[in-house]
Sequence to fold (325 residues):
Amino acid sequence: MSVAHVHAEPPVGVSTETYAFSTAKAAETPGRRRKKSRRDWSGWWFVGPFMLVFALVFIAPLVYAIYLSLFRETLIGGNSFVGLENYAKALVDPKFWDAMLRVTVFLLVQVPIMLGLALFAALALDSARLRWVPFYRLSIFLPYAVPGVVAVMIWGYMYGSQFGLVADINRFFGVELPSPLAENLIMMSIGNIVTWEFVGYNMLIFFSALKAVPHELYEAAEIDGAGAFRTIFSIKLPSIRGAIIIATIFSVIGSFQLFNEPSILQTIAPNSITSYFTPNLYAFNLSFTGSQFNYAAAIAIVSGIITMVVAYLVQLGGEKKEKNA
Fold:
């Protein structure tokens, strides 16, 4: 392209600036364009590893589970396509709905207690009235650092009425305490284990959110003469509403996914924990004990959909309250 062409007069109706910009773009070399195109793809070098792992550990198993749920193992002919028949069976399965009702009750009772204790601990640590706050914060969080299987084994040993702490108390005092592994107390025992494990985790979420509250709000409240409780209910709790919603959603999902605690305690309390105690335990036993892989996949997917819907409703309700506040 000649210099005269670059500095030629613009056509009628086109401004000089627009004509100069379009001419400069047209003068770009192909090598420069290719270099710019490579820069546009450079971000994939950062997100690519995550996307690969995400596809392998989440997308692929999910697709395979959906594929399995559409088939049924038969004695003659192997797997046969049955469409949504496994899902229709799951929707009228009394064992599945018994397990779903059990975790729903567990959710309604255990989650408020756990989050309430975590919120109380976070507010206490943030009150500036406690000494050695790092020590207390670490002590409350420490149970979460214990592996879940180890925690359940520890508590299972203490719960045993023939061995462990309960048995020792019975022998020492000559009493007969109710067994925490009895059928009527097993859900409370599991709730105690889960609460012990996750209070510190949720406390850390609340405590971090409290540390992000602007100090100007506290200064304004002090000038207005607000007391400690007034400051909590008017400033602190509204300011960390987002963190409370997140912790609630995580707890809802965790309740519907309850598996480790009943699975491990089942070995020492087989009469109290059935094979369909929770939806996840039911799907696991169907698959690895009953060899009903196709139906187990359908149970898992239906359970996942219910969990997703409930978590979304919790999030929606929390967002509405936050907008109306």
Q: What stands out?
A: Residues 1-6 have pLDDT under 50 and may be disordered.
